Every structure is written in structure tokens, then in C-alpha cells.
């Protein structure tokens, strides 16, 4: 839609076809995110209070740690996450579009399936790894409609949209991980607390595939540079949490606090390298007693970590580089990962407590999620990569609506996506972008209405140390089966996973699942044949699955 067409269909239209002098925040008004170029039009709905919005995004969270069906989740101490579940809606089947950091965040912020298919520096020359200048992220809509917008923590999708979406440039961290040694704000924060910079006392490593070379460290337990215990309040996620609280105070001090605030807090934990401070000794001892290696790890070890029957080659590539070949090291990783998640939860808890102290918690909308999952030693692999697997596609999604909505302690099993965050928050703010978004608003569900539409969500992947263009989908029967199907064009191996299995393994080659595989292949064929976003996979899929697909002639 061009500027002339937009003006002719909105309250902005006049006899002279010029913009009226009306605030975008006024009910019934309309505007553009980029007013100079008349780009990214939106409307404002009339009526209703526009609440404060707080988005908290963690980094690379294992489903083992939060899904109610997982044994480890029952052993985790996550009081902040559980308090949000009690006060809001817990979406137990939430997924990212792609389990690579930058592309997933691109989907989260734009509400669109990404063309960004690699992390910055992680793809081949010319591959998109940051958003294009003409793209828009949902905080830009919120800002243009009258919200004050703030950001703390990781960005990772390029600086331009963040420069335009937020009211300051002092937190535009566009790297894969925090540059702690070079963060002057963090160093000053530690000096104020009388804490010296951290160093590792114990680190997690593992023998590599040759069983001789020691891997890169995966982080571990930190002390101060002089060897003294490193307190929790000095840990980096807690620094980000305190910084976010300061930004809340600064924002609400302007104009008597009448302007609605959007703040996003992007915490790097529990992503490796872990930085576990003092005070978690008892938790470590307990977790070492209760954590069990996944069955798929033991099966991989029993075959000397060679490929399983029907395993796509890309899985072996990532086991080579992110595999754990010694049980003791794998346990260390799982314990460290769980502790890093508990450290992150404490940082979230500090932020939520500050909102409550300021009387902001009840009437605000708060989202807690993550950019993607973590293998956590399933298939003897950690981290994530350019493959599609349930452990890396799943994300936590907990949304606490304003108290006036009357919804508390609700659990929703219908599949949802990170794509849904942008349309949900725009809907909440009364903003109607006229540009396309691929997600759905979850606001009706947050107000006590029906659960979201039961959709066959699509997934994809691209490039991470190597290329693997692939796509996948999932299908859920309420109260029954829930499967994920993956098509790898560069391999003859399909993938089929039971999403109700706490240790999902590829079932595609098993005769007893042949009927399910054929049905999921037909669902995939229908999706990629009719949707131009996925049509690039269609010809190859049709040829590879000719025998499975129903013929109309």
C-alpha cells in the first residue's frame, strides 16, 4: 500500500489529501513508523488503557528445565518463572521459527518468518545475517504510537532498527555474547559494589571426537579476580536486571509517568559460557544427585557416538563439534546449564520484585520467553545449530496479562510461535500495522477467550558452520499425538519426532511409524505447495516423496 492509498482509507484523509495534525496515540488516529518516507503505516484503535509492557528474553533454554513433563523441571528452582505462570498463561507448546540466535530474534521482532538464516559472521559471504534497512520491528510501532521504548541486553539483528526503535543508543549490544571485559558500565557497576572482575575457578570441558584434544571451555564457576567468592548481585545478568530497573525509573520520571512504557530485557543466560557465582553450592550438590543423562545420550555412547540408523548427516556434523564424549563431562554440562538457568531466574526475579515495589507489576503485561532451545546432551549434543530438532525449536512462553483481564494460572497446549509476540503486543497497545505479520495475536486468549488457532507451524534452518537448508512442520491433535516432521533437501533422511516424548528421537525409518510419516509428509506437501514462502522446497520435496503423496490424476 502506498502513501496515497493509505491516506485515502484512514482517518488521515482530507480534501487536500494531507496528514492531519493529530497525535498518533489518539484513538482513531493513524500514522507511519517512517513518516518522512510514508513507510510502515498503522492505525490506532480507540478506547482502552494502554498498559506498560515488559518483554524478558532469555538465551538458549533447554526444555528439560521448564516443561512440566520433564523430570529435571520438577527439580529446578525457578521461583520467578513459576510466579509468572501462576499469575498468567503458560503456553507449553511454544516454538521458535529457527534455532539460530540472530534469525530467531529477527522473527521475534518482526513477526515474520526470517530471510535472515545465519548469525553475523556465521554464514557465507553475501548471506543475510542482519535485518535490511527497510524492515520494521514491533517496538518501532509502539514508539510511533506513543510508547516510550527502552532496551537492555542482547540485540544481534543489526543496529539500525534498534537505533530507530529505542530512545537511547547505550545498550545496542549486537554480538553473540556479552563482551564483559570491555563493558565499561559493568566494570563501573562492580566497582560501586566493591567487587573485582570475575575469573573462572572451575571450567567445563570435554574430550573432542579424537578423545584426546580438550574442547573449548563451556564456562563454569566464577570467583573474583583475587580468588574471593563472586556474589550473585555482581553476576552479569543481575547487572542487566538492575540496569533495566534504572531505565524504568528514568522513563517514568518523565511526564509524571503517564506515558506507557515498553521495555525489553534480553538476558544472555543460560547460554554458554556459564558464569555461575557463589551461593549455589547446595543447588549444585542436589542437581548432581538427580540429573540423569538422556537415553539418547546413552544410546549414542553405546555405538561409540557413531550415526544412528536413519540419522541425517547434519546431526553427525554437530556431534563432531558440539558433542560430549565423556559421561562425566556431559553431567557437568547439564548441571552447569541448570545452574545458569537458575541464575537467570534470580535476575528475572529481581526485576519483577522491583516492578512490584513500584506498583507496576499488577497492571502491566509481562512476557518471559527465549530465542531458541538447547540440546542439553540429547543425542550427545549441546548448543543448537542448522538442524531442526524439538529440543532446539521449543521455547518457554509465559505471559502475565494485566490483572484486570482476570486470567491467572492458565495452561494452554495449543501450539504458538515467537511469531505471535509482535502481533500480540501491537494488539495490546491498540496498534494495527497494515504491513503483513505471519503470527497471530494471543490477546483473546490472555483475556480468557478461546485458545489460539491450532496451526501447523513451519520451521526452517540455514547456516551455522555449514549450510543445511531445511524445513519442518508440526501437527498437534488436542489431547493426543503431537508430531514434528523435517525435510532435509541435502539428505535422503527425513525426520519424524514424537513431541510428547521427553527424549525425542527420529522415528522416520521405523516401520511402525510409516503411516504417521506419510501423513506428515502430505501435510508438509500441502504447506510448501500453496505458500510462496516455502515454495522453494516444493519441487525437491515432490520428487523425494513421490510415492507418499496422493495423486489427483
Task: Produce the secondary structure layout.
Layout: H1 3-8, E1 30-34, E2 39-44, E3 53-58, H2 79-87, E4 89-91, E5 94-95, H3 101-110, H4 138-144, E6 148-153, H5 159-165, H6 184-193, E7 198-203, E8 219-224, H7 236-252, E9 261-266, E10 274-276, H8 281-290, H9 295-302, H10 313-322, H11 327-357, E11 365-370, H12 390-393, E12 394-395, E13 397-400, E14 410-412, E15 416-417, H13 421-428, E16 431-433, H14 443-446, E17 458-463, E18 467-476, E19 482-487, E20 495-498, H15 514-530, H16 538-544
Parallel strand pairs: 3-9, 3-11, 4-14, 5-15, 6-9, 8-10
Antiparallel strand pairs: 1-2, 2-16, 4-13, 5-12, 7-8, 11-13, 17-18, 18-19, 19-20
Helix pairs in contact: 4-13, 7-11, 8-11
Number of helices: 16
Into which percent range does the helicity of residues fall?
25-40%
Indicate the structural class. alpha/beta
Low-confidence runs of at least 5 consecutive residues: 1-23
Order of strands across the biggest sheet? 6-9-3-11-13-4-14
Q: What sort of overall outline do the alpha carbons produce when their principal axes are compared?
A: globular
CATH level-four homologous superfamily name of the largest domain: Alkaline Phosphatase, subunit A
Radius of gyration: 24 Å
Q: How much beta, percentage-wise?
A: 15-25%
Please state the second-level CATH architecture of the largest domain. 3-Layer(aba) Sandwich
CATH fold annotation of the largest domain: Alkaline Phosphatase, subunit A
Cα end-to-end separation: 40 Å
Largest sheet: 7 strands, mixed
What would CATH call the class of the largest domain?
Alpha Beta
Per DSSP E runs of 2 or more residues, the count of β-strands stands at 20
Query: How many individual domains?
Result: 3
Mean pLDDT over the residues: 88
Amino acid at each position: 500500500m502506498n502513501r496515497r492509498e493509505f491516506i485515502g482509507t484512514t482517518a488521515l484523509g482530507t480534501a487536500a489529501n494531507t496528514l492531519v495534525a493529530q497525535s498518533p496515540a489518539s484513538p482513531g488516529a493513524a500514522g507511519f513508523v517512517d513518516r518522512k518516507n510514508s513507510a510502515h503505516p498503522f492505525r490506532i484503535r480507540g478506547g482502552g488503557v494502554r498498559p506498560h509492557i515488559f518483554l524478558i528474553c532469555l538465551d538458549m533454554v533447554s526444555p528439560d528445565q521448564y516443561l512440566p513433563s520433564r523430570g529435571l523441571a520438577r527439580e529446578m528452582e525457578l521461583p520467578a518463572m513459576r510466579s509468572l505462570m501462576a499469575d498468567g498463561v503458560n503456553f507449553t507448546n511454544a516454538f521458535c521459527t529457527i534455532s539460530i540466535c540472530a534469525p530467531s530474534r529477527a522473527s521475534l521482532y518482526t513477526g515474520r518468518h526470517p530471510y535472515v538464516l545465519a548469525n553475523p559472521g556465521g554464514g557465507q559471504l553475501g548471506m543475510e545475517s542482519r535485518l535490511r534497512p527497510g524492515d520494521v520491528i514491533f517496538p518501532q510501532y509502539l514508539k510511533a504510537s506513543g510508547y516510550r521504548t527502552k532496551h537492555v541486553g542482547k540485540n544481534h539483528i543489526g543496529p539500525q532498527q534498534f537505533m530507530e526503535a529505542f530512545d537511547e543508543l547505550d545498550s545496542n549490544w549486537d554480538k553473540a555474547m556479552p563482551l564483559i571485559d570491555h563493558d565499561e558500565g559493568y566494570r563501573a557497576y562492580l566497582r560501586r559494589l566493591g567487587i573485582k572482575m570475575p575469573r573462572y575457578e572451575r571450567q567445563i570441558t570435554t574430550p573432542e571426537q579424537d578423545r584426546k584434544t580438550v574442547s573449548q571451555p563451556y564456562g563454569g564457576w566464577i570467583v573474583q579476580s583475587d580468588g574471593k567468592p563472586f556474589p550473585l548481585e555482581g553476576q552479569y545478568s543481575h547487572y542487566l536486571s538492575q540496569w533495566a530497573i534504572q531505565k524504568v525509573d528514568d522513563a517514568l520520571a518523565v511526564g509524571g509517568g503517564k506515558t506507557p512504557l515498553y521495555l525489553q530485557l534480553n538476558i544472555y543466560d543460560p547460554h554458554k559460557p556459564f558464569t555461575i557465582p557463589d551461593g549455589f553450592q547446595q543447588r549444585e550438590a542436589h542437581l548432581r544427585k538427580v540429573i540423569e543423562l538422556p537415553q539418547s545420550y546413552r544410546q549414542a555412547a553405546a555405538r561409540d557416538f557413531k550415526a544412528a540408523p536413519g540419522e541425517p548427516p547434519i546431526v553427525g556434523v554437530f556431534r563432531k563439534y558440539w558433542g560430549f564424549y565423556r559421561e562425566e563431562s556431559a553431567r557437568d554440562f547439564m548441571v552447569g546449564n541448570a545452574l545458569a538457568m537458575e541464575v537467570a531466574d534470580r535476575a528475572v526475579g529481581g526485576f519483577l520484585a522491583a516492578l512490584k515495589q513500584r506498583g507496576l507489576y499488577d497492571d502491566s503485561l509481562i512476557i518471559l520467553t527465549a530465542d531458541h532451545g538447547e540440546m542439553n546432551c540429547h543425542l550427545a549434543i549441546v548448543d543448537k545449530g542448522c538442524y531442526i530438532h524439538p529440543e532446539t525449536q521449543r521455547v518457554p512462553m509465559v505471559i502475565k496479562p494485566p490483572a484486570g483481564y482476570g486470567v491467572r494460572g492458565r495452561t494452554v497446549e495449543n501450539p504458538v510461535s515467537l511469531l505471535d509476540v509482535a502481533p500480540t503486543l501491537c494488539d495490546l497497545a491498540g496498534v494495527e500495522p497494515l504491513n503483513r505479520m505471519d503470527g497471530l495475536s494471543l490477546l483473546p486468549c490472555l483475556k480468557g477467550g478461546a485458545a489460539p488457532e491450532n496451526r501447523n507451524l513451519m520451521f526452517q534452518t540455514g547456516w551455522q558452520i555449514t549450510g543445511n537448508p531445511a524445513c519442518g512442520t508440526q501437527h498437534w491433535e488436542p489431547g493426543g499425538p503431537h508430531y514434528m516432521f523435517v525435510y532435509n533437501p541435502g539428505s535422503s533422511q527425513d525426520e519424524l519426532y514424537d513431541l510428547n516424548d521427553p527424549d525425542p528421537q527420529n522415528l522416520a525409518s521405523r516401520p511402525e511409524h510409516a503411516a504417521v510419516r506419510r501423513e506428515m509428509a502430505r501435510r508438509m506437501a500441502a504447506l510448501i505447495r500453496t505458500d510462496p514462502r516455502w515454495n522453494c522446497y516444493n519441487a525437491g520435496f515432490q520428487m523425494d516423496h513421490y510415492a507418499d503423496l496422493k495423486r489427483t490424476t
